[in-house]
Amino acid sequence: MRSAAQTSPLHPALAGLALSGAVAWAAMGLGDIGWLQAHGFSALTVAIVLGIVIGNTVYPRLGAVCGEGVRFSKQTLLRAGIILYGFRLTFQDIAHVGVAGVVIDAAMLLSTFGLAWLVGTRVLKLDRDAALLIGAGSSICGAAAVMATEPVLRARSEQVTVAVSTVVIFGSLAIFLYPLLYTLQAEPVWGMRLPDFGVYIGSTVHEVAQVLAAARSIDQHTADVAVITKMVRVMMLAPFLLMLSMKAGRHDSGHQQQSKLSIPWFAFAFIGVVVLNSFLPLPATLNRVVLQADTFMLAMAMAALGLSTHLSALRNAGIKPMILGAVLFGWLVVGGALVNGALGRLLT
Q: Is 214 helix (H, G, I), strand (E, B) or coil?
C-alpha cells in the first residue's frame, strides 16, 4: 500500500509550503486587527498560535504529505526572513539614540543573556539550549531572536516553542506594566526624564510590537525614542549570533577534538543588508514590498514551528522555563531601570 505522500498529487515540499503559507496568510490578516495590535500581538505571534492549534489537531494526519515543506519553511525561509529583516534597520538609527542608548542596549543584552545562562543552567538545571533560547528572546527581540538562534544551537522544535511562548507571555505583560510604572511617578523614583523612559522601554521590552504598544500608551515622542532604541538593539542580533556560535562550538567539542565552528552565514548577510539599506536604500514602494514579503516568510517559519510542535512537549518542559522567564523579566524591569538611570546620567 502506498503512503499518503506517494498518493498525493502534490510534491511533499509544495504541500507543506502551501499549508505554512495558508497559516501565515491567516495570521497576517488577524494581525491587522486593531485589538490585537494594541495588545502587542504581531502576525508572528498569531502564526505560531494558529500553527500549534492546527499542529495538534488535523496536522498529524497530514504530516506525511506536508512534512518536507514545513521543515523548509522552518529552516530555509527563517534564514531568508532574518536576512531581509535588515531592510528595517540603518546605521543612522544609532545616531538618533546616541552613545548612551547604544551602551544601555549592549549592557542589557549582555547582562540579561548572561543571567539566563547562569540561572537557567546552574540554578534551574535546564537544558542548555532551552535556557539560551529563552535568554536570546528576552535580551534581544523576542520570538525573532529565538528563531534566529535556533539554527546556531540546532535546538529542538519543542525547545523553540517553549522559549517563544515564554517571551510572548512576559512581553505582553510589559505592555501593561510600563505605562503603569510611568503613571506611578517613575520619574522621581528612578530620576529619568521623558526621553530616557523611551530608551528604558526600548532597551528592556521583548518584541518590537510590544515596545510600540507600551510606549504609545505614554505619548508619541516616547514611542519614537523607544522604537529607535529597540531597533538598535535588534541590530545587535548578528554579532550576538557570531559570538554565540563560537561559544557553542567550543562547548560542544570534545576534550581531545578540534572544535568545529558552526558559522551562521545568514548573520553576515543580515549585516550586509543593513549596510546596503544604510547607504543605498531601496525606493519606498519597493521597500514596503520587501518588508511585507519578509513578514510573510517569518510568519511561515513561525507557522511551521507551531505545526511541528506537540503540546505534550510543552507540558513535559515543566515550570522551570516559566520561572527563568520570570527571573529575566524581573531583571529587565528593575535592573533595566537601574542601568538606564546610572548609564543615562553618566553618558549624557
A: helix
CB 226 within 8 A of CB 196: no
Q: Is residue 142 part of a domain?
A: yes
In a domain, 245, yes or no: yes
- What tens digit of pLDDT does each residue of 219-270 get? 777 887 888 899 889 889 888 988 888 876 655 554 434 444 455 677 788 8
Rounded Cα distance, 47 and 58, in Å: 16
Q: Where are the alpha helices (DSSP H) in the chain?
A: 4-7, 12-31, 34-38, 43-55, 63-72, 78-84, 92-117, 128-136, 143-153, 157-183, 186-190, 194-204, 208-216, 220-235, 237-252, 265-279, 284-307, 311-317, 320-330, 336-347
Which amino acid is located at 55 in the chain? G
> At CA 328, angle to CA 326 and CA 329, rounded to 5?
60
Q: Of 125, 48, 82, which Cα lies nearest the Cα of 300?
A: 48
- How is residue 57 annotated by DSSP? T
- Tell me the C-alpha distance between 343 and 31, whole Å: 36
Q: What residue numbers bound the domain in which 309 lies? A: 8-251+263-343
- Inter-CA distances, 139 with 61, 112, 184, 198, 216, Å: 37, 5, 25, 17, 21
**pTM listed for this prediction:** 0.74
Crossing angle between the packed helical segments 143-153 and 284-307, to the nearest 10 degrees: 60
Of the candidates 83, 91, 141, the one whose C-alpha atom is nearest the C-alpha of residue 290 is 83
pLDDT, tens only, 133-161: 999 999 998 888 898 898 888 888 888 88
Q: Please report whether residue 222 resides in a domain.
A: yes
Q: How far apart are CA 16 and CA 253, in angstroms?
A: 35
CB proximity list for 2: less than 8 A, separation 6 or greater: none
Measure the CA–CA gap between 269 and 298, rounded to whole angstroms: 16
- Which three cell numbers, joined as nine digits, stand for 90? 540603518
How far apart are alpha carbons 94 and 57 in whole angstroms? Answer: 45
The span from the CA of 221 to the CA of 157, in Å, is 39
Report the alpha-carbon distance of residue 63 to residue 65 in Å, rounded: 5
Secondary element (H or E) of residue 198? helix 194-204
Neighbours of 305 (CB within 10 A): 28
Distance separating alpha carbons of residues 120 and 117, to the nearest angstrom: 5
Q: How many domains does the chain contain in total?
A: 1
Asked if residue 180 belongs to a domain, the reply is: yes
